[in-house]
Amino acid sequence: MRISTVTMFEQSLTSMNRQQGEFMKVGQQLAAGRRVVNPSDDPQAASRAVQVSQSMAVTQQYSDSRVSARNALSQEESVLDSVSDAIASAKTLIIHAANDSLSDADRDSIASELRGIYETVIGQANATDGNGRHLFGGYQDGSPPFFRDAAGNVDYVGDSQVRQQQVDASRRMPVSDNGITIFQSVHSSAGYVAEADAGNGGDVTFSGPNVVDESDPGFGQGYRIEFQVAGGATTYTVNGGAPQPYEDGAPIRAGGVSITLDGTPADGDGLTMDRAQDMNTDLFRTFEKALAVLSEPAGTDAEKAARDNTLSTVMREFDNSLDNVLTVRASVGARLNELDVVDAVAGNRQLNYTETLANLTGDLSQPSEFAAAVSEYTLRQVGLQAAQKAFVDIKGMTLFDRL
What we know:
Layout (H helix, E strand, L loop, with lengths): L4 H28 L10 H55 L6 H22 L20 E3 L5 E3 L7 E5 L2 E4 L4 H5 L8 E5 L8 E7 L11 E8 L2 E6 L5 E2 L5 E4 L2 E6 L7 E6 L7 H13 L5 H61 L5 H29 L8
Antiparallel strand pairs: 1-2, 3-4, 5-12, 6-11, 7-8, 7-12, 8-9, 10-11
Protein name: Flagellar hook-associated protein FlgL
GO molecular function, one term: structural molecule activity
GO biological process, one term: bacterial-type flagellum-dependent cell motility
């Protein structure tokens, strides 16, 4: 059998090309740090590696989303902390203003300080984040959610919804609370609030109301107390019922709720006591009532009684508003804690993905794997050099060299 010179050259060239291809393949693996560089290296592993990489990318996106959610919730918590401090300061001023030894000028000074706190709360209610979005406007976060009209009343013009964000595959978390929830609501556990009629002519003041029996069939309802004075006798009715004799300083009980009245009522005077949810729940309205009564001098006994009753109502409303703000703040804290838990779970998931991907692609970061790859690289290099040497030797095998 004759073997032509062309055949020997082609076989030698094919061998060199094969050895060079293997050598370059191992070099690419070392440079990339993994054994599977191209899908052709291991089609099944490459396909699974793509899926794992996509899962890692999705997990990272959720991680970025949690960073944004954490920033928003942290800003809200900071604002709520300031609001709760402001309400606590307002309560301190109201307690001080209820001191009978103060003059009207003293109370006017307290009103000035209270107005400053009021303006601070309005500013906090219209607070924005680092991107200029208003925190408490719901989805309408492009403009201030609280607007003061010409009469000085503060109205909410934001959205009743709350902004939510997908922080994990199965968790869509609220990253803010709307202004109604924070500044115009009270917690469901808030008790009763009493408020005297604005036009009362007597000097009756109240303390309470206090819950004494939640099992009473009438508990949870609202009650209207009205006074009648006729023939020197003073009576009262509850929700238009039968008249009962009024006794100064004696508690009046209705539906498991007790309220104590002191003073002498005038004919037609009245007051209402009801669940806090059905009375004034607007924090701004509470500030306005307090400012109005502290700014006006009280000369008569009826005016002083009206001031004391208003301050008593305002104090109860401030208590309810503070409880509500603290409850919302606790909810924000719980969501921040949940983000930490989700972060920990996602971190473990990401580590599992990384380990799986390393196993699929043949990660060379381990010393043993790297040493094996270097050994193979050296072997392929020797093979290529041998093929090149063989080609040089075969090229020299010609009769023309003997002439």
